[in-house]
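User: I've been trying to design a sequence by hand for this structure and keep getting stuck. Would you show me what you'd pick, starting by listing the structure so we're on the same page?

Assistant: Good idea, let's start from the same input. This is the structure you sent:
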Protein backbone atom coordinates (compact mmCIF):
# COMPACT_ATOMS: atom_id res chain seq x y z
CA UNK A 1 0.00 0.00 0.00
CA UNK A 2 0.99 3.61 -0.43
CA UNK A 3 1.68 6.45 1.92
CA UNK A 4 2.02 10.22 2.07
CA UNK A 5 4.75 11.96 4.06
CA UNK A 6 5.94 15.54 4.31
CA UNK A 7 8.96 17.50 5.55
CA UNK A 8 9.06 21.27 6.12
CA UNK A 9 12.28 23.29 6.08
CA UNK A 10 12.46 26.93 7.18
CA UNK A 11 14.90 28.24 4.56
CA UNK A 12 15.08 31.70 6.17
CA UNK A 13 16.38 30.22 9.43
CA UNK A 14 18.24 27.33 7.82
CA UNK A 15 16.54 24.70 9.98
CA UNK A 16 13.58 22.31 10.11
CA UNK A 17 10.22 24.01 10.65
CA UNK A 18 9.21 22.28 13.87
CA UNK A 19 5.73 22.97 15.20
CA UNK A 20 4.11 24.03 11.92
CA UNK A 21 0.43 23.09 11.81
CA UNK A 22 -1.01 21.47 8.69
CA UNK A 23 -4.35 20.11 7.49
CA UNK A 24 -4.89 17.51 4.75
CA UNK A 25 -8.03 17.60 2.62
CA UNK A 26 -9.33 15.25 -0.02
CA UNK A 27 -10.67 17.48 -2.77
CA UNK A 28 -12.78 15.16 -4.93
CA UNK A 29 -15.71 14.92 -5.12
CA UNK A 30 -15.91 17.67 -2.49
CA UNK A 31 -13.33 19.18 -0.13
CA UNK A 32 -13.25 17.31 3.17
CA UNK A 33 -10.68 17.29 5.97
CA UNK A 34 -9.09 13.89 6.50
CA UNK A 35 -6.06 14.56 8.72
CA UNK A 36 -4.28 17.32 10.64
CA UNK A 37 -1.26 17.75 12.84
CA UNK A 38 2.01 19.57 13.53
CA UNK A 39 5.52 18.92 12.37
CA UNK A 40 7.96 17.61 14.97
CA UNK A 41 11.33 19.19 15.83
CA UNK A 42 12.80 17.66 12.66
CA UNK A 43 10.12 19.36 10.51
CA UNK A 44 8.48 16.00 9.83
CA UNK A 45 5.48 14.12 11.14
CA UNK A 46 5.99 11.29 13.58
CA UNK A 47 4.47 8.92 11.02
CA UNK A 48 2.85 9.01 7.59
CA UNK A 49 0.25 11.72 7.05
CA UNK A 50 -1.90 9.19 5.21
CA UNK A 51 -1.38 5.52 4.39
CA UNK A 52 -2.79 2.16 3.34
CA UNK A 53 -6.55 1.97 2.69
CA UNK A 54 -7.04 5.72 3.30
CA UNK A 55 -4.49 6.56 0.59
CA UNK A 56 -6.41 6.36 -2.69
CA UNK A 57 -6.35 7.82 -6.19
CA UNK A 58 -7.59 11.42 -6.13
CA UNK A 59 -6.79 15.05 -5.59
CA UNK A 60 -5.56 16.29 -2.20
CA UNK A 61 -4.61 19.57 -0.56
CA UNK A 62 -2.03 20.02 2.15
CA UNK A 63 -2.51 23.38 3.86
CA UNK A 64 0.42 24.62 5.95
CA UNK A 65 -0.16 27.39 8.53
CA UNK A 66 2.99 29.33 7.62
CA UNK A 67 1.94 32.71 9.05
CA UNK A 68 1.22 31.20 12.46
CA UNK A 69 4.55 29.36 12.37
CA UNK A 70 6.59 32.49 11.58
CA UNK A 71 4.70 34.59 14.15
CA UNK A 72 5.41 31.96 16.82
CA UNK A 73 9.12 32.30 16.02
CA UNK A 74 9.02 36.07 16.49
CA UNK A 75 9.41 36.90 12.80
CA UNK A 76 8.23 40.44 12.09
CA UNK A 77 5.52 39.94 9.45
CA UNK A 78 3.34 42.55 7.75
CA UNK A 79 -0.40 42.31 8.31
CA UNK A 80 -1.66 40.52 6.43
CA UNK A 81 1.46 38.41 5.86
CA UNK A 82 2.58 37.74 2.31
CA UNK A 83 2.30 33.98 2.97
CA UNK A 84 -0.26 32.95 5.55
CA UNK A 85 -1.75 29.63 4.48
CA UNK A 86 0.29 27.72 1.91
CA UNK A 87 -1.96 25.40 -0.09
CA UNK A 88 -0.36 22.56 -2.03
CA UNK A 89 -2.87 20.81 -4.31
CA UNK A 90 -1.58 17.57 -5.80
CA UNK A 91 -2.88 14.41 -7.41
CA UNK A 92 -2.31 10.80 -6.46
CA UNK A 93 -2.39 8.53 -9.49
CA UNK A 94 -0.61 5.52 -7.97
CA UNK A 95 -1.96 4.71 -4.50
CA UNK A 96 0.64 1.95 -4.07
CA UNK A 97 3.46 4.49 -4.32
CA UNK A 98 5.21 6.67 -1.78
CA UNK A 99 4.35 10.36 -2.11
CA UNK A 100 6.72 12.62 -0.21
CA UNK A 101 5.68 16.29 -0.37
CA UNK A 102 8.43 18.51 1.08
CA UNK A 103 7.94 22.23 1.64
CA UNK A 104 10.83 24.69 1.68
CA UNK A 105 9.53 27.97 3.04
CA UNK A 106 10.45 31.50 4.10
CA UNK A 107 8.13 34.42 4.91
CA UNK A 108 8.19 35.52 1.24
CA UNK A 109 8.51 32.38 -0.84
CA UNK A 110 8.22 28.60 -0.97
CA UNK A 111 8.88 25.63 -3.21
CA UNK A 112 7.81 22.02 -3.27
CA UNK A 113 8.27 18.89 -5.35
CA UNK A 114 7.49 15.20 -5.25
CA UNK A 115 10.32 13.74 -3.26
CA UNK A 116 11.35 10.18 -2.70
Amino acid sequence: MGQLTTHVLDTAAGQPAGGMAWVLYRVDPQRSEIASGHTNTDGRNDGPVLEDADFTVGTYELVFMAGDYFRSRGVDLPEPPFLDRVVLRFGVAEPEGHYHVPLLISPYGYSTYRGS
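That's my pick for every position. To get oriented when you compare it with your attempt: The CA atoms of residues 2 and 98 lie 5 Å apart. The chain has one helix and nine strands.
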